[in-house]
Amino acid sequence: MDTTSEEFAANKEAMLAKLAEIEAEHAKAIAGGGEKYVARHRKRGKLLARERIELLLDEDSPFLELSPLAAWGTDYHVGGSVVTGIGTVEGVECLIVANDPTVKGGASNPSSLKKGLRAAEIAAENRLPTINLVESGGADLPTQKEIFIPGGRTFRNLTNSSAERVPTIALVFGNSTAGGAYLPGMSDYVVMVKERAKVFLGGPPLVKMATGEESDDESLGGAEMHARTSGLADYLAVDEEDAIRLGRSIVKRLNWHKQGPAPKPDYEEPRYDPEDLVGIVPGDLKVPFDPREVIARVVDGSDFDEFKPLYGPSLVTGWADVHGYPVGILANAQGVLFSEESQKATQFIQLANQTDTPLIFLHNTTGYMVGREYEQGGIIKHGAMMINAVSNSKVPHISILMGASYGAGHYGMCGRAYGPRFLFAWPSAKSAVMGPQQLAGVLSIVARAAAANRGQAYDEDGDKAMRAMVEQQIEAESMPMFLSGMLYDDGIIDPRDTRTVLGLSLSAIANGPIKGAEGFGVFRM
C-alpha cells in the first residue's frame, strides 16, 4: 500500500471527517445531563458516573466502553443515561454498569434497558463479574409500557449470574427504589453509602397512600437501617470514595481465576504502522480494498498464515495471533461471496472449532452472488453451508464492520443476529438488507410491473421521486451511528484502535472456557 498516494490521502481525509462526527456525538454522552445538572450533582458532593468508574479501576488500566451511542437518533439522551464497559479491578476483568444521575436522575428508559441487557449478555457469555454503580430513580415512568415487562430480565440476569458462580456487586450511591431496589437485593455483595443510599420498594409518599403509615427516607430505606436492621447492606461506606474502596476489596477477595487459555507471554507489535488504518477504506465503498493491509496492521508481528489463498479469493482466511491470543480471521476482499468462498469459509470455521481457536470476522461484503449461473451452481446451498457453520460454531466470534455489510453476507460473516461475543464498527461501515440504489431499484421494478399488469401508464416523475426518497432513507438507516443507536453494534471505534479493542475483547473472552463445536447441523451438499 502506497501511503503517499492521492488515493490514500483522500481515504484518510474522509475517515478523519467521519471520526470527528463520531467524537462530537460521544461528547454528548460524556456531557451527561448538561452543565446545570452536572453542577447540581457536584454541589451535593457527589462524583459523576465516569469519575466513579475511574476510581474503581486499577490505576492506568484501560476501560473498554460499550454502546456509548445508545439512543442516538431517538428522543432520549445519547448514551442511554447509563455507562457500561469492561475494566480491570484488582486484576480482575469486570463488567461495569454505572447509572448517570445527571440525566433524569439516572432513570431507565427503553434505550437504557437495551444497553443494560446487552451488557448483561456480554457478562454472561464471557463469565465476567458485574459491578453495578447504582444511583437511579428507577423507571422513566412515561415509558413504562416499553420497559416494565422486559425489564424483569435485569434482575433475572443477576440471579442467573450468581447461580453460575460469577459474582455480582452493587455499590449504592443514591436512590435505588421501587423495582430498582431488587438490584442490590439480588446482588451477591452490597455496599451502601451512609446518608446517601436510599433503597426501598415504596418511598414515604407511596407508603402513606398505601398504608397510611408516616415514615421518612432513613427509617424506610436508609443505608444505616439496611446495615444495622434489615441486613440488606453488607458494608456501610462513609462516603463515595470509601464505597469504591470497599468494592475493590470485595473483588480482591473473590479468588477469581480465568478458565480460558493465557496469551503467549512474548509477542511482537505489528511491523506496519496502525496509523495507516485511517487511509485504507475508500470513501466510496463500491471501490474494493485489500483486507490484508488491515490484517498486517492488527496482528502480532504482521504474521498471517493464509489458508487456501488461491481458492475463493474474494474471502481471505488464515491464522494469526493478536496480543498473544491465537485467532482465525475471515476477511472480505472483493465484496461478493461466491460458492467457492462459502465452501472455503465453512471448512475454515470447522478447523477453528477443531483447535478451539476464536474467530475474527472483518466485514466488507455486498452479500452472496445472484444470477442464473450462480443459482444453478448452488449458491443457496453453499451460502447456507457457511451460515450453518457460523450458527453452530462454538468458539468465540468477534466481528468488525469495516465497510459494507449487506444482505445475507452480513449473516454469513457473523452479524449481530448470529451472536458474536463482540461486534464493533468503523465509522466507514454501512449495513442494510442491500445497498440504497439496489433497494430503490427493486421497488421501482416491482411498481413498474404492477402498473403494467393493471394496464396503467407508469408515473416516471413519481418513480424518480420515490427512488430518491428511498435511497436517502436507506442511506441514513445504513450509517453506523444509526445502527449503534439501536444497539446493533457494541460501539464505533477508531480504526487505529482495532488491535487494542480486539486484545481487550480476547482477554475478556478468556475469563471463560474456549471450546469448539463437537458437531454441526446437516450441510446441504
TrEMBL record:
<dbReference type="GO" id="GO:0016874">
    <property type="term" value="F:ligase activity"/>
</dbReference>
<dbReference type="GO" id="GO:0016740">
    <property type="term" value="F:transferase activity"/>
</dbReference>
<feature type="domain" description="CoA carboxyltransferase C-terminal">
    <location>
        <begin position="273"/>
        <end position="516"/>
    </location>
</feature>
<protein>
    <submittedName>
        <fullName>Acetyl-CoA carboxylase, carboxyltransferase component</fullName>
    </submittedName>
</protein>
<feature type="domain" description="CoA carboxyltransferase C-terminal">
    <location>
        <begin position="21"/>
        <end position="258"/>
    </location>
</feature>
<keyword id="KW-0808">Transferase</keyword>
<dbReference type="InterPro" id="IPR045190">
    <property type="entry name" value="MCCB/AccD1-like"/>
</dbReference>
<dbReference type="InterPro" id="IPR011762">
    <property type="entry name" value="COA_CT_N"/>
</dbReference>
<dbReference type="InterPro" id="IPR029045">
    <property type="entry name" value="ClpP/crotonase-like_dom_sf"/>
</dbReference>
<feature type="domain" description="CoA carboxyltransferase N-terminal">
    <location>
        <begin position="15"/>
        <end position="266"/>
    </location>
</feature>
<dbReference type="InterPro" id="IPR034733">
    <property type="entry name" value="AcCoA_carboxyl_beta"/>
</dbReference>
<dbReference type="Pfam" id="PF01039">
    <property type="entry name" value="Carboxyl_trans"/>
</dbReference>
<dbReference type="InterPro" id="IPR011763">
    <property type="entry name" value="COA_CT_C"/>
</dbReference>
